[in-house]
Structures are given as structure tokens and as C-alpha cells.
Amino acid sequence: MLSNGIPAIKEMTVQKYDLKNDAFEDGWKVIRDKNELENFRKILNRAKHEKNVRYEMARHEDYKVTVTFTDNTQDVFMVWKNSGKYIHMIRQDSFKVSHERDKMNLLKILDS
Q1: Alpha-carbon gap, residue 84 to 103, rounded angstroms
Q2: What's the CA gap between 25 and 5, in Å, rounded?
């Protein structure tokens, strides 16, 4: 199994982008379920990881995911759910989720 060094996650907040209003929705979802957090971590660790890259996307991201790790540090991932054959997740680096089962599970976590 590939590993991108993503550590254990304590919680995540997910905000959806509202294209109609051109802004993130006011509300957000907090995820603390250990199974969902571990599944999200495993998906990131299996994803194709690219360091030191910059992307300019043609459209706005679909989600903003703030991840709080067990050491209380945080990362913010911008997520494009329809980025070609990938679900594309960008923080300072890039994660491309291409496996169909991982894509399905990731969207289930983000949309639930």
C-alpha cells in the first residue's frame, strides 16, 4: 500500500461551494466518526501525490475540507470532484484520487 504520510485525523469540517451564489455555503459539516476519518486518511495515503506543483483550475472547487490531526495541527484541502478522471485535492501539494472505489467512498464522506 502506498503512503503519503497523512497522520491520524481527529476531525474534519466540510464546506460545499455554492455556484449559484458564488460562495461557500454558510453552514458546514463536522465529521468525528472514527471510521469515516480513517477511511479519508487511507484514501489520501493511496492517492497519487505530487509535491511542489501549482495548478490553476478552470472552475471553483466543490468543497473546502479542514482537517484537524490528533496533534491539533490543521490542513485545508480544496477539492474538485470532477477533475477529469480524478478527484483532485490541493493544499500546498496535490493529491489525485483515481481508484473508482476510493472516489465513491470519498464523495460519500463529503456529501453525507
Answers
A1: 12
A2: 31
- Do residues 81 and 62 make contact, with C-beta atoms less than 8 angstroms apart? yes
Give residue-wise pLDDT tens across range 51-100: 977 777 888 899 999 999 999 999 999 999 987 799 999 998 999 999 99
The pTM score is 0.90
The answer to whether 43 and 103 are in contact (CB under 8 A) is no
CA-CA distances (angstroms) from residue 79 to 7, 71, 90? 19, 23, 7
List the Cα angle 15/46/28 in 5-degree steps: 10
Looking at residue 16, its amino acid is: K
